[in-house]
Structure formats: structure tokens, C-alpha cells
């Protein structure tokens, strides 16, 4: 059953990621890989929030946590696309953009995951 749940979550996550890519391409024309950055930022925030809130509440099944964390968010975010896009920036001679992309991705992802975790904590304190 867990494989089915992770697969369904993965299908939904990848479709959401693709939708963000399409929306971004239609709105922005830039060589900077903004769609992947937005997706990874959003995924980092959601995973930080979900993980923290689910662990604290302890009333969610491990199967649901795996389906959401590994399936949905795992397929929504993408390290492989980040890696390829970074190499493409470097190969295109856009070294500063490549470095900026790396720094934004790592620092922004960590920061948004932390903020998501904090927001989960604050929400719980307000509801208590």
C-alpha cells in the first residue's frame, strides 16, 4: 500500500512542478532558472512545515508521512534539475548567475525549511 501512496504523491508532485514550469515560462523570459528555484523554495518550506507539524502531533500514520514527504514533496522538488541548470549556466559563460543560483538555492532552501518549521510551531502555540 505504501508504494501506491508514494506513487500517487509522486505523480501529483511532478504534475505540480511541471505546472509551475509552464506558468513561469509563459510569464518570464530569462536565462535564470526561476521555475526550479521557486519550486524548490516552495517545496523546502512545505516540507519543513509538514514534517515539523506531523512529527509534533504524532497522530498521522507513517504511510501518510511517507506519501507526502517522499512522494509528493520529493517529486515536486528537484535536485537533478537544479544541477543540470547550474551546469548549463556555467557552460553558457554565466558564471555569476550560476554562483548566485547555487547560493540562493542552498541558503534559500534551508531558510524556507526553517521558516516552515517555525510557522508550524507558532501555529501550534496559537491554537493551544
Automatic annotation (TrEMBL):
Q: Which residues cross the membrane?
A: 31-52, 64-83, 95-115
- Statement: the UniProt record of this protein carries the keyword Coiled coil: no
Q: What is its main location?
A: membrane
Ordered alphabetically, the record's keywords are: Cell membrane, Ion channel, Ion transport, Membrane, Metal-binding, Sodium, Transmembrane, Transmembrane helix, Transport
Q: Where does the protein end up?
A: Cell membrane
Q: Where does Na(+) bind?
A: 74, 77
**Topology of this chain in the membrane:** Multi-pass membrane protein
Reaction catalysed by this enzyme: fluoride(in) = fluoride(out)
Stated regulation of activity: Na(+) is not transported, but it plays an essential structural role and its presence is essential for fluoride channel function.
The record's Pfam families line, in alphabetical order, gives: CRCB (PF02537)
User: Which domain of life, per UniProt?
Assistant: Bacteria
* Primary role: Fluoride-specific ion channel. Important for reducing fluoride concentration in the cell, thus reducing its toxicity.
- Sequence similarity: Belongs to the fluoride channel Fluc/FEX (TC 1.A.43) family.
Q: What is this protein called?
A: Fluoride-specific ion channel FluC
The organism is Rossellomorea pakistanensis
Amino acid at each position: 500500500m505504501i508504494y501506491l501512496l508514494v506513487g500517487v504523491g509522486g505523480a501529483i508532485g511532478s504534475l505540480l512542478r511541471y505546472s509551475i514550469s509552464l506558468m513561469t515560462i509563459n510569464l518570464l523570459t530569462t536565462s535564470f532558472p526561476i521555475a526550479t528555484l521557486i519550486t524548490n523554495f516552495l517545496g523546502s518550506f512545505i516540507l519543513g512545515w509538514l514534517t515539523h507539524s506531523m512529527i509534533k502531533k504524532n497522530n498521522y500514520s507513517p504511510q501518510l508521512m511517507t506519501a507526502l514527504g517522499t512522494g509528493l514533496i520529493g517529486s515536486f522538488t528537484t535536485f537533478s534539475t537544479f544541477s543540470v541548470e547550474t551546469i548549463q549556466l556555467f557552460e553558457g559563460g554565466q558564471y555569476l548567475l550560476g554562483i548566485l543560483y547555487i547560493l540562493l538555492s542552498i541558503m534559500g532552501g534551508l531558510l524556507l525549511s526553517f521558516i516552515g518549521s517555525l510557522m508550524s510551531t507558532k501555529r501550534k502555540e496559537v491554537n493551544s
